[in-house]
Amino acid sequence: MSSEHVICETRGPVSWMTLNRPEVLNAFSTELGRESLEALRRALADDRTRVVVITGKGRAFSVGADVNEPGADADPAKRIDIMATIAHKAIAEIRQADKPVIAAINQLAAGYGTALALACDIRVATETLRLHYAYSLIGLTGDGGVNYFLPKMVGVSRALEIALTGEPICEEEARKFGMVSKFFPQETFLEDTQALAEKIAAVPPKAAAAIKAMMYASQNADLLTHLATEKAFLTEMAGAPEFLDLIRRFKK
Fold it and tell me: What is the pLDDT of residues 50-63, one digit of tens each?
């Protein structure tokens, strides 16, 4: 079910969410934030969906918050608080979801657009990628977990330099630090992303959920705790019928 600012499509086991304000490079208004959060929750709750893809229509993934909205508000700080609250709910949904979420970054992401992309489990992009921190250039300090995700990916010193200078992260650096896993040509970007999503969707849902949960939990767990968790999940998955089916196919 699409809305005014979000196009929702189901392509086999993959749910696509396309941010649809191309005239402003998919800048997040309060309404777009609400609609995209609702669309994300619907996709994650859909039993037919195994992978969710988020992308933007036109020439950008998203340039972040529509600054005209708080700029025109009698209480800009309150409007920013409302927008950030919605944004943070979306970030939490992505990270806590059982299903993998892919950010398909077409050319440009900035501000909350960058934060949203970094929060996703996997990122793919066009070969003309530009990621901008952007917040500091208008006197803001970032939201959507950008100050959490970026240092983990590029290191604190480089993250500070990116944030304080406004320098973009381009394809070479995004590839070097593993921020983006694959780069696709612009002309086949959507098709290539769908093919990758379908490959991921072939993993049994419970296994995919367990792998995602363990990967994130490992960042704050000691090795022995992690090994115990791995063994518990491994034993559980080995008793699932999908395991035997996949083993039989593998042997053929």
Answer: 999 999 999 999 99
Contacts of 234 (CB under 8 A, 6+ apart): none
Q: Report pTM.
A: 0.93
- Report the alpha-carbon distance of residue 16 to residue 31 in Å, rounded: 19
With 0-12 CB in 10 A as exposed, 13-18 as middle and 19+ as buried, what is 108?
buried
Cβ atoms of 53 and 15 closer than 8 Å: yes
**Using CA atoms in the order 127, 186, 114, 197, what is the torsion angle rounded to 10 degrees?**
-100
Q: Which residues pair with 55 in a beta bridge?
A: 18, 104
The answer on pLDDT for 251 being more than 70 is: no
Specify whether the CB–CB gap between 59 and 25 falls below 8 A.
yes
- Answer yes or no: is pLDDT of 250 > 70: no
CATH superfamily of 6-201: 2-enoyl-CoA Hydratase; Chain A, domain 1 (3.90.226.10)
User: Where are the domains positioned within the chain?
Assistant: 6-201, 205-251
Say if residues 93 and 37 touch (Cβ distance below 8 Å). yes
Residue carrying structure tokens 């409007």: 79
Q: Is the pLDDT of residue 115 over 70?
A: yes
What gap in Å lies between CA 104 and CA 57, rounded to an integer?
Answer: 11
Within the chain, where are the H helices? 30-45, 68-71, 76-96, 112-119, 146-154, 156-165, 171-176, 189-201, 205-217, 223-238, 241-251
pLDDT tens track for 126-171: 999 999 999 999 999 999 999 999 999 999 999 999 999 999 999 9
**3-class SS at 202?**
coil
Beta bridge partners of 9: 16
